[in-house]
């Protein structure tokens, strides 16, 4: 029997609740699909930081390196630990250290989910550069506490990273409906974004079967609301992709439905799967978090591991639950009710 080692990092707030739900579904699907998942849970979180002074141990990255994949709930508890500390201590270092350069986020309506738009038949795959750009962490502050204090944060765009994310986008477009939207702001940002556009244009020649359009980020934001059906694969930088994927989550009915995969396409280190949403301290412990985004992310993990049938079974089970109206309206059903409906549909 095939066996996979999974590092489980539930994290903070509703991350713990939805990670448990996703794991329950994974156990059910593995039992019936004939493969085994072995979880090792890590308590790395803001609570862990309060105890130890770090979000994960100094050898945390090396510990994770040996796993086949990482399943993460959510990180952050700003009342206790500043987000800038918790995210730079756990989530962001994992993405960078394991070169999970492609952050893949699908946006489509599940059956039974209303969504705020009239459009219903959109199927967008956002691909976000996940290692550099506006999230490079290059910068500093000077003259702190004085009237002339200054803060500098520099975006970094390297040919290697821009080229590989665009190439990844072209490949995805080729495997889907053959359309690629490249998102920049090259009318205002004349170095990095013009550089990105140039690389897009050059790569387009290698993919004559893919129809490429370059959009500015502001126009893309409007298009995702006004004409989402016109989009197939959308590739964007780290920050632009972050913003667009919350918009994508909104048009698919809310953050409770938005799944994501942080992929290392070379498979030189583990990839990580997590819902797009955060730890939601306001509803933590209430038992009303929607686990669908985390369960869908778990399906993306199985797909990545090559357990395609298991991934499809989870997606079908989610669809069975939402078709029956379970988990479709934010706050209506409890986490356990939605999880139970998905698990039951796997029978
Ligand atoms: C996301 C989140 C993170 C990001 C935060 C928590 C740092 O918003 O995964 O979309 O911006 O990448
Ligand atoms: Mn985000």
UniProtKB/TrEMBL annotation:
Gene Ontology MF annotations: D-malate dehydrogenase (decarboxylating) (NAD+) activity; magnesium ion binding; NAD binding; tartrate decarboxylase activity; tartrate dehydrogenase activity
EC number per UniProt: 1.1.1.83, 1.1.1.93, 4.1.1.73
Keywords in alphabetical order: Lyase, Manganese, Metal-binding, NAD, Oxidoreductase
Residues covered by the Isopropylmalate dehydrogenase-like domain: 5-342
An annotated GO cellular component: cytoplasm
Catalysis: reaction(s): (2R,3R)-tartrate + NAD(+) = 2-hydroxy-3-oxosuccinate + NADH + H(+); (R)-malate + NAD(+) = pyruvate + CO2 + NADH; tartrate + NAD(+) = 2-hydroxy-3-oxosuccinate + NADH + H(+); (2R,3R)-tartrate + H(+) = (R)-glycerate + CO2
Cofactor field: Mn(2+); Mg(2+); K(+)
Subcellular location: Cytoplasm
Claim: Acetylation is one of the keywords in the record: no
Pathway(s) annotated for this protein in UniProt: Carbohydrate acid metabolism; tartrate degradation; 2-hydroxy-3-oxosuccinate from L-tartrate: step 1/1; Carbohydrate acid metabolism; tartrate degradation; D-glycerate from L-tartrate: step 1/1; Carbohydrate acid metabolism; tartrate degradation; 2-hydroxy-3-oxosuccinate from meso-tartrate: step 1/1
Pfam families xrefs: Iso_dh
Family that this chain belongs to: Belongs to the isocitrate and isopropylmalate dehydrogenases family.
Function recorded in the entry: Has multiple catalytic activities. Apart from catalyzing the oxidation of (+)-tartrate to oxaloglycolate, also converts meso-tartrate to D-glycerate and catalyzes the oxidative decarboxylation of D-malate to pyruvate.
PANTHER family according to UniProt: D-MALATE DEHYDROGENASE [DECARBOXYLATING] (PTHR43275:SF1)
Name of the protein this chain belongs to: D-malate dehydrogenase [decarboxylating]
Species lineage: Bacteria, Pseudomonadati, Pseudomonadota, Alphaproteobacteria, Hyphomicrobiales
């Amino acid at each position: 029997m095939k066996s996979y080692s999974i590092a489980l990092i539930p994290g903070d707030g509703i991350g713990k609740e939805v990670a448990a739900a996703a794991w329950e579904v994974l156990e059910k699907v593995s039992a019936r699909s004939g493969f085994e998942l072995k979880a090792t849970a890590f308590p790395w979180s803001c609570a862990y930081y309060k105890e130890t002074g770090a979000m994960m141990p100094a050898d945390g990255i090396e510990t994770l390196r040996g796993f086949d994949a990482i399943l993460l709930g959510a990180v952050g508890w700003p009342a206790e630990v500043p987000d800038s500390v918790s995210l730079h201590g756990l989530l962001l270092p994992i993405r960078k250290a394991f070169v999970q350069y492609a952050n893949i986020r699908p946006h489509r309506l599940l059956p039974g989910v209303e969504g705020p738009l009239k459009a219903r038949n959109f199927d967008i795959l956002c691909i976000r550069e996940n290692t550099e750009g506006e999230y490079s962490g290059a910068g500093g502050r000077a003259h702190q506490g004085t009237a002339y204090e200054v803060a500098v944060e520099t975006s970094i765009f390297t040919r290697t990273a821009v080229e590989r994310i665009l190439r990844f986008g072209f490949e995805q477009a080729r495997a889907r409906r053959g359309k690629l939207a490249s998102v920049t702001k090259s009318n205002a940002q004349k170095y990095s974004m013009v550089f990105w556009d140039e690389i897009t244009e050059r790569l387009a020649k290698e993919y004559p079967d893919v129809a490429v359009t370059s959009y500015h980020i502001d126009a893309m934001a409007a298009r995702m609301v006004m004409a989402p059906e016109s989009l197939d694969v959308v590739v964007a930088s780290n920050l632009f992709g972050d913003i667009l994927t919350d918009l994508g989550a909104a048009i698919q009915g809310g953050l409770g439905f938005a799944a994501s995969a942080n992929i290392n396409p070379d498979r030189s280190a583990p990839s990580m799967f997590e819902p797009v949403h955060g730890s939601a301290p306001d509803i933590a412990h209430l038992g009303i978090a929607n686990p669908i985004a985390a369960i869908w992310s778990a399906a993306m993990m199985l797909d990545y591991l090559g357990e395609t049938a298991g991934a499809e079974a989870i997606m079908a089970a989610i669809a069975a639950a939402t078709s029956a109206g379970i988990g479709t309206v934010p706050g209506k059903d409890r986490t356990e009710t939605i999880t139970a409906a998905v698990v039951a549909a796997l029978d």
